[in-house]
Hints:
Residues 1-67 form the DAHP synthase ferredoxin-like domain. By secondary structure, the protein is α/β, with parallel strands linked by helices.
Amino acid sequence: MIIVLKRGTTQDQIDAFSQQFIDRGLTVNSWHGTHETVLGLLGDTSVIDIEYVQAQPIVYKVQRVQEPYKMANRKFHPDDTVITLPGGQTIGDGSLTLIAGPCSVETEDQICEVASRVKASGAQFLRGGAFKPRTSPYSFQGLGTTGLDLLKEARAKTGLPIVTEIMSVAHLDLFRDVDIIQVGARNMQNFELLKQLGKMDKPILLKRGLANTLEEFLMSAEYIMSGGNERVILCERGIRTFETFTRNTLDISAVPILKKLSHLPVVIDPSHAAGIPWLVEPLSMAAIAAGADGLIIEVHNNPAKALSDGAQCLTPDQFDALAKKLNTAHQALKAL
């Protein structure tokens, strides 16, 4: 249930009003916007008399929420969520966020060189896999804790916050010093992992599963948010369809749909969606036009010798040229 309060309602009135719902076993989340205050009631709201609530002098309107996701719902939080990191970097504030780096961390020289190059091109975050989920058990699985150490070294040298994927609840302590924790497509419905990430004070970049609906995607975000961590970034990375030309099929419609249904930032991963380097640029342009808050792009200093997903990586020079086009396109669209 959502309760929109009238302008001028004081905090004391809000607290007293909310307490009656808390006393009945409900959780009350409040959102204070520029022009209104919204209370979101979570729990069994069937026990609440909606006419009684509507009759209260401080209440403007009351609405029952039919969607199963509540905290991720834009009705609960009309303004866009902006995620700010300790270093001042932001996602969701209307600027274009670029996250770039290799699929896998391989060596100190590799990750540090790529970090330096993508930062020079305007990337605000460094991505890189330390633990890698692979379809084949014989493929390179990542460097593990050594890879995390190398990412932190690249961060120390460049100042770029790091984004890397967690694979298991058992690895939670290893990720305490990671800036943004990524949940990969294969773990989108690893609910025990999502519950534990809900207890962390870290932004979580949640990737959509390759065969999941948008409602299922938002319900996974809800798992994290219901645990207390509301700093979730949604990532569309392509879904599996009958098409075989591309690695996946980028669901570009997911961007405006997610922005309408939810207040959470939305980024696009064109590299995994396409699996083809020359498609990264047009898909990235389409993502910006659709309203995405950012892009996460794979960049490797020697794609031909990459230990994983080299076929879809851009070179640093290609990323530099692309970043210039993306920023130009983003500014032009903002001016419309």
